[in-house]
Amino acid sequence: MLEGLSLRSVRSKLLFSFTGLTILTVGMIVFSVNSRLQQASEDKIEEEVIITANVLKEFRETQLKNSSDAAASLIRYSPQLRASLAEYNTKSSIDSLFDENSTSNEDDLFEEEVSSTDEGDLFGEADEGLFGEEAPTAEEKYQVLEDIVREIELFQQSQLFIITNGQGMVLYQKGGKHLLEKDISQWPVMQAALGGNELFTWWGRESPMYRWQEADEKNPEILYEVFFKPVIFGSTVVGVLIIGFDTTNQPALIKNITLSDVAFFQGKNLYSNSADEKLTPSLMKLASEIEPNEDQIVHPFRSGKEDFLALAHHVIGGLGNEVGMIVIFRSKTRELSFFQDLSNLLNLIGIAALIGGITAALVFSRGMIRAVRELAKGAEEVSQGNLEVSIPVLSQDELGDLAETFNKMTKGLKEKDHITQTFKKYVSSSVVEEVLKTDVKLGGERKEVTIYFSDLADFTQISEKLTPEDLISFLNLYLSRMTQFLEEQSGIVDKYIGDAIMAFWGAPLPVPNHSQKACTAAMKQLNWHSNFRRLWEPNSPQSSASSRIGIHTGEVIVGNVGSDRRLDYTIIGDSVNIASRLESLNKFYGTHVLISEAVHRNLDDDLLTREIDLVRVKGKAQALRIYELMTFSSKATPQQQSVADWFNEARTLYLQRQFGEALSLFEQCEAEIPNDPPSVLFTQRCHNFLVNPPPEDWDGVQTMREK
User: Within 10 Å of residue 595's Cβ, how many Cβ atoms?
Assistant: First the structure.
């Protein structure tokens, strides 16, 4: 095949040119793939560092809030602790606790106990009342306080637990007694706490803790996360709880979750680091170069032959001062090691092509180009977000290894994406996406939202007539389609309660016209029900299925509710109860969708409604004006439009006590739509009031005795 080849022949020149062009093309394609994937991976590393910083911030805020709540619960539900601290203050300060002008909004529970218990019973007759002649010793105070707190979970979980009196004198310290009666009131943070303020700070080597007890080899330096919780009796601070947690294991914990390394600094001291200790000098140098206003800037740094990307988070204490800094970082060198292998492979390809000669170029160039093109195509698909791409392994050489490595990489990315998508099946997509973007404000906040409740009528009877398999099939189909209509209108499904659905609009993202969207979803669900019932045999239990829906717009508390191990993004408040009551009222009025006046005010002319009644639901003193959502205005029949107009006019006459005129209109409604439940109900009421008129103070409100 090589016979007759000469540099003077056109064939040879073309062949050698093709060989050179092939080598150049292969090199350019692989270099392009390398550059694209490397840039994408560098961006991904930087994104992971930022995500880790936000995760750490949320983790620490949640941890501090939980600790603060636990301390508040300890104070609120331990009157013995407050009573003891009150007794350990000076008599002048104790007198102020019982000053007839002193008030408290914080300790209502304890005040109730004091009001129902005389002082002798509260503090013990054996101690001769609150001001016994023999004051307790420091050792006695220590023992009393230890008996109170030693079984408490917060005490067991914390590494620092110090209790002072209202003058800043140490009464108790967990694990030792050498600090008893030490006056710490001169600390600025302690002065703020004695003023009734709850504060957070860090204690490290430069903190008072280390001036009490110097660290040694057996007692390594520790950075504590500490908060000061004042104990208030009446309007007087009678003591302060100082609670601290060892942060040593936090970097390793965050790394296990996010795969990013974390280091905690205070001043010039590095306290804990999840990475190798050989990085310490480089981390110390980086920390000294970061300015306080550079929290959202990613900094590159180098240690030995390894490159890193880092982001700093300055920790601000309760006095508004910086108490430390957290540095989150990832190794760019390790993350991009794949691309170094790719560069080495590129060199091998060039050398192999030159040594193999013209024949090898003719035989292998097509396969190499195809393989690299497949890799480039796959890289392009990945850059556009397609993680389902798979590169065919066309050979057992280095390009085959490269294809397998690429496939492993996309598989890993797909698994991460699968976790996110799976999470969205348990939590609304809007909530998941906002949390990942960290734009959503977690924790409780007040918002006006629209709340939706739906329930299947006579579900108990339906379920009793079906096998478990048929029941689950029926329920899954019903819930799937109902949920689809809610999500098409930007609704958030909060939870399923058997056959019931709770949803809301307006959080975590604002939803324009959320009252209108909720009602639109409800009408689409009702229209779908007729087709849904046709899926089953005419006399089957499923064929009689129908929904009852209640919708209300009002203010709620929206945020995370639960424990430190399990959170639920949901809404709570009186408005939620009202929506639930509206759903139940459908049974009384024979309707399918009832909405509150707050929802009705926000609707446009696309929906046909009629006023149903003024009701006072169980547990509420305020009367509630309710409306029936009848249909879309564009799909309303002449009968429905007439009934809506007549019914609303009849309601006005009814409330004006003109029962005869109202009766005539209600009977017209009943004639237009036979057996219309609301018309039948008010026809009966008018007949009754014509015979037995209501009292003079009658306001037209229907009081419900059941939920």
Answer: 29
CA 343/CA 194 separation, integer angstroms: 64
d(CA 539, CA 537): 6
Taking only Cα atoms into account, the Rg of the chain, rounded to an integer number of angstroms, comes to 37
Q: 3-state DSSP call for residue 513?
A: coil
Q: Give the confidence band of 208 by pLDDT, cuts at 50, 70, 90.
A: low
For the beta carbon of residue 495, count every other beta carbon within 10 angstroms.
10
pLDDT tens-digit readout, 87-143: 787 544 444 444 444 444 444 433 433 333 333 343 333 344 444 556 778 787 888
Q: Give the C-alpha distances (Å, rounded to integers) separating 246 from 67, 138, 213, 264.
A: 13, 27, 16, 12
| 426-483 residue pLDDT tens | 455 555 555 555 444 456 789 999 999 999 887 887 878 788 888 888 888 888 888 9
Residue 553: its H or E element:
strand 547-562
Q: Give the span between the Cα atoms of 294 and 311, in whole angstroms.
A: 8
Q: What is the mean pLDDT of residues 352-369?
A: 55
Total Cβ atoms within 10 A of residue 693 = 11
pTM here is 0.44
Residue with tokens 């800037």: 297
Distance CA 495, CA 420 (A): 19
Q: Assign 141 to helix, strand or coil.
A: helix
